[in-house]
Model the fold of this input.
Amino acid sequence: MHTIDTKGKLCPEPLIMAKNGLRDVEEGEKILVISDNETSFQNLMSFLSDLGANPVAEQKGEEYFVEATKPPESSEKAEKNPEAYCSVPGVSEPSDDYVVVARSCRMGEGDEELGRLLIRGYFNALKGMDNLPTHIVMYNGGINLALKDTDTAIALGELEDKGVTIIVCGTCVDFYRVKEKVAVGRISNMYQIANILAEAGHVVYL
Done:
């Protein structure tokens, strides 16, 4: 069985590698795709299913093993675009909506304790505003705002209840090894984050 190792790679690269792998085998033959990223794995399963490749998955530790069968060459499904599976539904056209980006667990430069107080105050104030952001994106140190037992996670949860989409950088979660501590939001990849920022009416960086 042809094996495709996508460990360490983020969407859409694993999907492109899987699609190319299917091209290299005969109809009805199987490939094995290995991933170590949950978001990439979920995107991969959706992509292969829509291709008609009947993916079957197994998780071993932190790695995901996906068997897929090459569908008929004549299938229109073979024209699926891998990058489309890394995009965020509902974010397609520029608008006057805005996105808030938290790059740190503090707001501004200077005293760290003051910075933490300011960012907590910002999200608490944001809850009471009529004009809410469509998304709040957190990456690097900003992901700490979404962790369990933090005041900011409570405020973010209330904003999520109001319809704000909370996005947490998956690469950052893996780097800091805090996946089990994430209390609010959706763990996502950098392709999706880039898409959100590109399509936003404007972006507020904290």
Observations:
- The longest strand covers residues 63-69.
